[in-house]
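Quiz preparation item.
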């Protein structure tokens, strides 16, 4: 695997973790939302990753055809949670049913924060890998200058 291909793999990981971070932030922001456009409470969303071939924007077509295929990561789908909402007795709430119960999203914002920290660390790990490759390329250029 060439150094430029390594950068492409890290870039795909950063892109996937950025998307996951956006979903997690949206989940946290809507953890108490009882009414959506679709009707009912907000539904938890989660990104599903899969292996995906990476593009090689820095290398020639001939060189990339000689290299073994490299896999990065991509978001294959967004899963929407189908669990039953949590029902709380709140008779004065505008979204209360005839018995006085309000449907709330069925997920923990604390778990979402923990997942957000994990996504942030994964993103940082990809940045570190990309910086290491960048340093290797820079040192290679310095060596060739002689």
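Solution:
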């Amino acid at each position: 695997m060439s150094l430029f291909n390594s950068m492409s793999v890290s870039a795909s990981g950063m892109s996937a973790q950025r998307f996951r971070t956006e979903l997690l932030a949206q989940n946290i922001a809507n953890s108490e939302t009882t009414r959506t456009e679709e009707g009912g409470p907000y539904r938890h969303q989660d990104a599903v990753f899969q292996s995906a071939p990476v593009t090689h924007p820095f290398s020639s077509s001939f060189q990339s055809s000689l290299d073994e295929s490299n896999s990065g990561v991509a978001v294959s789908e967004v899963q929407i949670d189908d669990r039953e909402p949590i029902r709380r007795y709140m008779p004065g709430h505008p979204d209360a049913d005839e018995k006085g119960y309000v449907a709330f999203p069925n997920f923990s914002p604390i778990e979402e924060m923990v997942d957000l920290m994990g996504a942030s660390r994964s993103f940082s790990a990809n940045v570190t890998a990309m910086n290491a490759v960048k340093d290797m390329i820079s040192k290679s250029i310095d060596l060739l200058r002689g």
